Amino acid sequence: MSNTPRLAAAKRDWGHDESGCHVLHIDMDAFYASCEVARHPELRGKAVIIGTGTRSVVSAASYEARPYGINSAMPVSRARRLCPQGVFLPVDMHYYRSVSRRIFNEVFASVTDRIEQVSVDEGYMDVSSAMQQWSGPSEIGAWIRRQVWERFHVTCSVGIAANKLVAKMASTNAKPDGMLLIPKSMHASFVQIMPLRGIPGIGPSLERKLSQWGITSVADLARLGEEDVNRVVGSSTLGHTLFLAAKGMDERKLSTHTQEKSIGAERTFAQDTTDPARVNALLRQCSDEVASSLRKHALLARTITVKLRFADLSYVTKAHTLERPIDTASLIYPQAMALCRQIFSSSKHSDSDSPGAEDSTGGNANALPRAVRLAGVSASGLSRPEETPIQLTIDDLMPDDVNGALGSKRLSEAERTLDIIRSRYGKNSVHLGL
Predict the structure, then answer these.
(1) What is the Cα–Cα distance from 356 to 214, expressed in whole angstroms?
(2) In whole angstroms, how large is the CA radius of gyration of the chain?
(3) pLDDT tens, 270-280?
(4) Which residue, of 56, 217, 375, 388, is most buried by count of CB atoms within 10 Å of its CB?
(5) CATH number at residue 355
(6) Residue pLDDT, tens place only, 332-368
(7) 29 in a known ligand binding site
């Protein structure tokens, strides 16, 4: 469920020259909600909202729910107030992924194997190799939309262009259930009628930074030279990308074998908490889940990130990149705890409304300075063990039981033993005490 702005002026006929426009971006419309309506046809035409529970947030909503102001990440409690007649359903990721898998395998893959799946409900296709069997990209896009609807009763929107950036922006502005071809000669004109947030990757923070320099639209951005853009955003890499984007250009190629970028786990507390023991316990559980997933996928991680969402629904993330990659909870959890402490240390010094624990936690000096709603851990910088050089440390060469401590090698072996037990008796059958 995207909150990216769309322009009515963009949804028009931009021309019919398809030469060089071999990139398709396909985006399912309100995918989670559409999947639920597909298996419950009696819900068609109703405001379907995916998310239940007073502590949850909205994951998706049908188009019938959006006129009520429902959007993703909104607290379900607020969504119920805005749309009391809505049908609220729990998230069923197993079902949504199974439908997605069939759409990609049975529909997209029948056209070409040049597919980059970005998420469960969107992906890119390079159809240049399929032109011997099809009259043009528009015919392929129309066929895909028809097949997805007839087989799965889900609608999708298709953008057709010469690069990934414009194809994605085209599918966004074709929604819902539409298709938009942007000829190569019209790429610059198309992107330059957009607001800044119309370019994927420009969020509120970057938008504010640009607006401070008087840049309020893509057309404003397009008038700057590349060095000026670099100076405004403070990064030559980001500046180069934005300089090209403002002219409808994109150097990225399709990645048909995208390795998983991160593995994470997060949980929402039943009640907001300022108890550090409860937050640490949840971080330990998440660390264990992440480590287990890393080993299941035969991956090592070099960067650990902690995410905390607070009572007002704002959130903070903090990451640390390690010298050597890891895949065990016994190493991930201490990093997560350290990152959590750093977050709250910064909060104490920067939050003028909470100068100390005593002011915001009823006098409990050990309580956290801000109430936590959700906590999570993720691992990124992933690599395969056989492709990852690891420099041994002194600790690796020491006996396991020096000073009575269990060595890292034996801890790693213990966690792999837990994997075997969980595979036989269930993932909640045993937990690691850290």
Answers:
(1) 38
(2) 24
(3) 899 999 999 99
(4) 375
(5) 3.30.1490.100
(6) 999 999 999 999 887 654 544 433 333 444 455 578 8
(7) no
